[in-house]
Amino acid sequence: MFYYLVRKYWKGTLLAVAFYLMGYYTYYNFDDAMSFMVCMGSLAWMTGLIVHGTRGNGKKLVSLATGLVNLLLILWYVVSLKPLRRLVRRLRYIGLSPEPYPYLALYGSLADTQAMLHKFSLAPFYDKTPLTRAALWQLLVRGSLRFADGDKGPELQVGPWSDAPSDGIDQAFERTLYKFLCQAAQPGQTVTPKQLARVISYYSQKRKKTKQYDIDNQFRFADLLNTGLHLRAYTKTDIRNIWGMKRFLKGLPATREQLTGKGAELELRRVWPDYMAYAYLFGIEQRVIKRIASMLPADDGSAQDRLLRLLTTSKPHRRALKRMMAAATTATPMAEDAAAGYMGRFSFAWHVDEIYDI
Prior knowledge:
This protein is mostly helical. The chain is built from 16 helices and 4 strands. The protein has helices spanning 2-8, 10-27, 30-52, 58-79, 82-93, 110-119, 129-142, 172-184, 193-201, 215-225, 236-250, 264-282, 285-295, 303-313, 315-342, 347-352; strands at 145-150, 153-158, 203-205, 210-212. It has a two-stranded antiparallel sheet. A two-stranded antiparallel ribbon has the order 3-4. A hairpin with a 2-residue loop joins strand 1 and strand 2. Helix 1 crosses helix 2, helix 7 packs across helix 8 (172-184) and helix 12 runs antiparallel to helix 13.
């Protein structure tokens, strides 16, 4: 092995070491330095394959390069003992199975909660798009995004910005998403899923026929998606309660008769929109909203109850919201790519970092 590394492949070895030193000098962190080395090494690898393999089949060359890069990423993920380290940290803070936590664990913003979920997830890749869907749901509940009757069925309109009750929770992510809504359509106007996806991902200028990125909003959006989180700001109880909320939502009773406790129905009627925000963040929204609808059969005429009835009894309204959620989900990684390009990084490098800690 020493012969192959030093005598035969000394150029590639020196290049890998140089990439690692550059990454370590830039990030001062072992995992981030290795991430940078993998990204730059993969780029050099693919460039070499393209330069020296242009005479062969182009499709096979691209497939080979993609497969080799993915294999390198998986190999590093295993060799670095990342799964074991995450498992030990998860057991230390959460334990094997946290107790169900029925109260709203509002210890931080949606972005902070998403970052905490990421840190304790055992999956090699973590999907950040549920955060966008949770923020859209918050805007819908507050009236900043609302249903309206259109010629072809229910449509979504942009309403005025509405603050949440004063509870000290940061709403920066919701505000940024609301800015995208206002750029897609002015307050009082209808916004389509295509318009929302376009303004989140890029702007199209017809005169120049080029894509002009909105650097400030896109960078802010991507920066909030990748919010770093210091666990020192949270106790172990707080962290367990976040995961206990997920277990509680998964175990919601299926019928109204199974609700226990004095005033349980009244409490559920008051806080179910916040429960749904967490359900979107956890990716279990379909299951939770069906359970909530079955436990709250009576309509008291409030705006929140009307919204619940629309989303459980009206297919056109469910379809309109689903399309908007899908558009935001599709545009989320594109906004990250735009911000990554502005920062001088390769677009795919932003997503490669998802294998490692935030």
